[in-house]
Predict the 3D structure of the following.
Amino acid sequence: MKSVDIRELRKDDLQAVMKIDEVIRGFPRPAYWERRFINAEGIPPWASLVADVREPQSNEVDNRMVGFLFGWASIWDFGLRDEVGWIDVIGVHPAYRYKGIGRALVNEFSRLAKDRRRIEKVFTLVNPEETETPGFFSQIGFARGKLVHMERSAGHFYDKAGGLNGNRTLSAPTRRKTP
């Protein structure tokens, strides 16, 4: 088995991340990943990681990225009083799944969050209808938390009494300049 090196994301990783994502999803998303890389520049470097493979008994990396994790840290978001880590996106090339790479990425993210920010909890959101993701996170120690995911249609607007006002655009009050 080849060994795996976990390291911080670099700008030149964009093409490799896009390639893995395309293999996983079945279609390319270049605009999405270009935005993610721009956003990652504003996040502490420890929060976005990649996994590279290495041949046994060699110090040379294959230059083959096989996985990635994008995360961040927040404090007081969603009413949480302590700083917490968030795993936003994780992807492992299908040919390298079930080899501990996803676990290694999450473990390194968790270790860095604890060591560099004294973070005690790491959160993520999963779609329970997906077949692999909830099981993966459960196997590595994640459990259902106290936060409740809520959503609504962006095209509906509600009045003060909570009644639906249909699909319409609300205009913001304008401020008039006085002469």
